[in-house]
Design goal:
Aspartate Aminotransferase, domain 2, SP_NH2Trfase/AEP_transaminase, 7-stranded mixed β-sheet, 14% strand, single chain, globular, 392 residues, Aspartate Aminotransferase, domain 1, alanine-glyoxylate transaminase activity, 2 domains, alpha/beta, 13 helices, aminotransferase, 3-stranded antiparallel β-sheet, Serine-glyoxylate aminotransferase, 41% helix
Length: 392
Amino acid sequence: MSDQNPVFIPGPTNIPDRLRNAMHIQTRDHRAPDFVETFAPVLEDCKRVFGTETGQVITFPASGTGGWEASICNTLSAGDTVLVARYGMFSHRWIDLCQRHNLEVQVIDCEWGSGAPADLFEQALKADTDKTIKAVLVTHNETATGVKSDIAAVRRAMDAASHPAMLFVDCVSSLASMPFHMDDWGVDIAVSGSQKGFMLATGMAILGVSQKALAAMETATLPRTFFDFRDMMAANASGGFPYTPPLQLIYGMRESLKMLLEEGLDNVYARHFRLAEGVRKAVEAWGMKLCAQSPELYSDTVSAIYVPEGFDSNELTEHAFNAYGVSFGIGLGEMNGKAFRIGHLGSLTDVMVLSGLATIEMAMADLNYPFELGSGVRAAQEYYRATAAANQ
């Protein structure tokens, strides 16, 4: 019966029945005229979620990592310099990917739990008098630490430095869950995926690409075949794909966008904030601390929580799964063994979140954590009760 329990990992997220039913289809001809009627609205409605009117939406059958690779191999050349801050596992992995593509990676190392250092970006860009830096890479929502970075501040820093570098943003665990304003923030490539805020299975990398980034293809020489923007856009123009598409995911994506727009994006974002705030109230009641160093950094999709000194967070998540059949996020990288994560994004309600908080409390009590059983659930209940009217 444990497969009926929701997961509380920061992705892949719970798939609502409406989307599972949408993907439960027989094989269809992706070159038939009626496929255009399904696929074209996906590309158009995604623009609303990215917050762009002028950008192009491009999808690939891949995870977010494939989206990272597509972003650099279509716009950069071997030996180009990119500027990246490392403040979590996913910013670290993007750095590794760039290095494997023979890019010169200028890394600003930051403490895990902090966000994108706009001031240090500005300093580095001002020091780059020859304008060798071609792109600034930022992780909007660092899933390993539960940190949300201020992308608008990064754009202001780039503008203050009068630097022409492109701005690439990983929004895999934030898009369709937290506000994203691609045009207003001057983002050139935004990388997301189907398995988090869109509430689907893993398998679609979804990119928002600016006209500036598209123009960069003219001089970029990194090799690309599967991830070639030109091939994909040429096929998309007539409603098709340059190769076999992930058909079931596209049908699911069509329904996912309908769900998000029916709820209203502002309501989606408010729901995620409310769910996250209830979790944060619980953490405070437990006497524990978030990895995110200050409230403006708190993510509305995942909370990374330090366990008390002398306890192993991996033992906690394993016990919660083995004893109660519920999955929570393990600590990644520097957080391994020190923190666990509660994912609170996608298809979730306050009632579901309360079940997750109650479960992790049982697991902590089983392992003799120094807290009062029920304290976190009670704190979250009080918050959800107080905000229930505003949520109607």
